[in-house]
From TrEMBL:
Its main location: membrane. Keywords: Cell membrane, Membrane, Transmembrane, Transmembrane helix, Transport. Signal peptide: none annotated. It is found in: Cell membrane. The keyword NAD does not apply. The chain crosses the membrane at residues 12-36, 56-78, 99-116, 136-157, 169-189, 195-216, 274-296, 317-337, 357-378, 390-410, 416-435. It is a multi-pass membrane protein. It comes from Flavivirga jejuensis. The lineage of its organism: Bacteria, Pseudomonadati, Bacteroidota, Flavobacteriia, Flavobacteriales. This is MATE family efflux transporter.
């Protein structure tokens, strides 16, 4: 039997390693799944199909936002119910989560089916890009239920501490997607619709595996009857917690929508294709950093609650140091071989000097993510919920929007890259100042 981590006494470096590796691997697997469709469409269909599907990213965040609402609230309530041994609450988690997943999927799927053309047209794309995007979106939205329910159910497995089990289910679905997509596109000639259908099939399997896990009694908590039912005694708690994560995700949706609209406004087809390749690559490389900081919250939160202030301070320092080191490792290949890396997503794409500079500048953002991410996790861990919520939302309104609008006005599409770099650096700087004051307050209170 594996020894459970002792958050109060174990070496912080060992805790970081033990908790972060499964978290990073799990998020990497999910990230790879998100790249499968665009990778195969780029190779089998062409650059227009790749760009059209990639431009759907802001619309896909709508499903992600609903998923976060259900998953974050359900997982939080379950974790506390397990810790306090509230068996009756535990029994209500899954029925309530299933009901919320069904409601959320209905809300996004029905309008998505009826108004698919109008919804995709909001992105501002036209011609072949619009045709490819619409074809993919019409199929993609049909699988919203499997995405919302599957990820929320898998989040419950993580909440009970079985991160490796949750990762195994994710890995199986990703492998299926990797196998089906080239068959549907390259062999059956289903086009971009084939990529969407393979994703739905993978998420259906993902949902089935997690359901069987609970039905067969593999969970460590009392799951109660496997049924769909709103449980009003826990509903308010689930929604209040989930809404905080939901609101942050909505602010990100607004950010990405504006960003992609500016790309359409100022960019040619080639410029849009390059931006989407660079954006996807950056998102993929940022996943290990986000996975790293997922493991930081219990370490800081538990030690803060136990009045182990010196371990809180040291924990923040260690996580920032490791995050910056990891960021350096991640960007070295891009700095050295930018064209080779981009060609993985865009075959035979020759980069000019401006594009090489832009992608290196964007990847440099990975070096400031450790400061901003660790600060937000710190605020969440010590109960500074308002800071943790309002700062990311304020970032979009008072940093991102004015900076990117001003710079694109004067520099065109190049202003998007300048704006992203400048905004991320300024945001990290603001969070560093605020977190420094909070850490000083913690140290002063503890007499350190």
């Amino acid at each position: 039997m594996k020894k459970k981590p002792d958050f109060i006494n174990d070496n912080l470096w060992k805790l970081l390693l033990k908790l972060s590796v499964p978290s990073i691997l799990g998020m990497m697997v999910i990230s790879i799944n998100g790249l499968v469709d665009i990778f195969y469409t780029s190779y089998f269909i062409g650059r227009e199909a790749f760009t059209g599907i990639s431009m759907l990213f802001p619309l896909m965040l709508v499903v992600t936002s609903v998923t976060v609402l259900v998953a974050a609230g359900s997982a939080s309530v379950l974790s506390r119910a397990i810790g306090s041994n509230q068996v009756e609450v535990q029994k209500k988690i899954i029925p309530n989560m299933m009901a919320l997943s069904l409601i959320g999927a209905t809300v996004v799927t029905i309008p998505g089916i009826i108004f698919s053309k109008e919804i995709v047209s909001v992105l501002g794309i036209s011609g072949e890009l619009f045709t490819y995007a619409l074809e993919y979106y019409k199929i993609y939205i049909l699988g919203a239920l499997f995405s919302i329910y599957g990820l929320s159910a898998n989040g419950l497995i993580r909440a009970e501490g079985k991160i490796e089990q949750a990762m195994r289910f994710t890995l199986v679905s990703v492998i299926l997607n990797l196998l089906l997509t080239p068959i549907f596109i390259g062999v059956l000639h289903m086009g971009v619709a084939g990529a969407a259908w393979s994703s739905i099939a993978a998420m259906f399997l993902y949902s089935l595996l997690t359901s069987l896990y609970f039905i067969l009694g593999k969970a460590t908590f009392n799951t109660g009857r496997f049924r769909i039912r709103l449980e009003y005694t826990i509903l308010k708690n689930v929604l209040s917690i989930g809404f905080s994560a939901f609101s942050m995700q909505l602010s990100n949706l607004f950010r990405q929508f504006l960003l992609f609209r500016l790309v359409v406004l100022y960019g040619t087809l080639e410029a849009m294709a390059f931006f989407n390749a660079a954006f996807r690559l950056f998102t993929f490389l940022a996943i290990p950093l986000l996975g790293l900081y997922q493991s930081m919250q219990p370490i800081i939160g538990i030690n803060y609650g136990a009045n182990k202030s010196h371990r809180c301070l040291k924990g923040v320092y260690i996580y920032r140091l490791v995050g910056i080191a990891l960021g350096i490792v991640l960007i070295i290949p891009i700095l050295a071989f930018p064209e080779t890396i981009i060609n993985i997503i865009l075959p035979n794409k020759a980069l000019n000097e401006t594009e090489i500079f832009n992608i290196r500048m964007i990847m440099g953002i990975l070096l400031v993510i450790p400061i901003s991410s660790s600060s937000i996790i710190l605020f969440q861990s010590i109960g500074e919920a308002k800071l943790a919520t309002l700062l990311p939302i304020g970032r979009q309104l008072f940093l991102f929007v004015p900076i990117v609008l001003i710079l694109t006005k004067y520099f065109g599409i190049e202003g998007i890259y300048y704006g992203l770099a400048l905004e991320n650096v300024l945001y990290a700087f603001v969070l560093w100042i605020i977190s420094r004051k909070i850490l000083q307050r913690i140290a002063l209170k503890a007499g350190l």
